[in-house]
Each structure stands twice: as C-alpha cells, then as structure tokens.
Amino acid sequence: MGEKGAGLLSGINRWLRGRSVRHDERGVIGLANLIVLGVVVVSVGSAAVLLARTMGAAQRINTKAENISKTGKGINTATDAVIQLNRTNDTATSILGTATPLEPKLQKIVDLANSVDG
Predict the structure, then answer these.
(1) Integer distance in angstroms from the first to the last C-alpha of the chain?
(2) Which has the higher per-residue pLDDT, 81 or 37?
(3) Number of structural domains, the chain?
(4) At what angle do helices 102-117 and 75-99 cross, to 10 degrees?
(5) Domain membership flag for residue 108
(6) Could you tell me the residue range of the domain that residue 71 belongs to?
(7) C-alpha to C-alpha distance for 55 and 59, rounded to whole angstroms
(8) Residue 113 Cα to chain centre, angstroms
(9) Which end of the chain has fewer CB atoms < 10 Å from its terminal CB, N or C?
C-alpha cells in the first residue's frame, strides 16, 4: 500500500478510537441485538415445529402405504379372474348368437322325428 493508503487507514483508526458511543446509543444497540436474537430464536423454533410435523406426516403416509401394499397383493389375481370371466361371457354370447338361428331348424327336426316315431 502506498503512503496515501496508509495515511487514510491511520486516519480512520484515529477517528474510530476517538469516537465514543454514548450511553443511550449502547442501550438502543443492545435492544436491537436482543430483538434480532428473539426473531432468530422464534424462526428456528418455528422451523423445528414445521420439520417435526412434516416428519410425522411422512411417517403416517409410509404406514398407510405399507398397509396398501399388504392389502393389495391379491388384487392382481382377482383382476385376472375378472378378465377371464369377461372372455367367457363374450364366448358364451357368441355361441348364443350363432345357435339362435338354428332353433327353428331344430324344431322341424324334432317334429319330423316325432312323426316318424309316431
């Protein structure tokens, strides 16, 4: 640093040493520090409470998810059975649709057999 910089720093140091803080200023500064400290303590406390509530909610969700997992294990088997029943119903409907036009012809055959038996 040059001579000018050194002189400036020494001047600032002399000014700071020569400046005295009045008694009423110390009280205001102390009160401001106390208020800031109070705000920080309240903020940290609030954050801790919110974190605890979040952890509790996460644990409840985890418990419910475990119950759903245990309960839902057999659902896949039941779903497969429902799909198979739907296929069976579709096949039965197709057979019924195909056999319905045969009914009058079968009646003629039954009538003919009865007349031969006669």
Answers:
(1) 137
(2) 37
(3) 1
(4) 60
(5) yes
(6) 23-117
(7) 6
(8) 73
(9) C
Written as six digits, the tokens of 51 are 């974190």
Q: Which residue has the tokens 């205001």?
A: 28
* Assigned domain for 71 exists: yes
Tens digit of each residue's pLDDT (9 = 90 or more) over 19-64: 555 555 666 777 888 999 999 999 999 999 999 999 999 999 999 9
Structure confidence at residue 62 (pLDDT): 95
Inside any domain, residue 109: yes
Residue 4 CA to residue 20 CA, distance in Å, equals: 26
Q: 């509530």: which residue's tokens?
A: 53
Determine the pLDDT at residue 26. 66
Instruction: State how far the Cα of 93 lies from the Cα of 88, in Å rounded to an integer.
Output: 9
Count of residues for the chain? 118
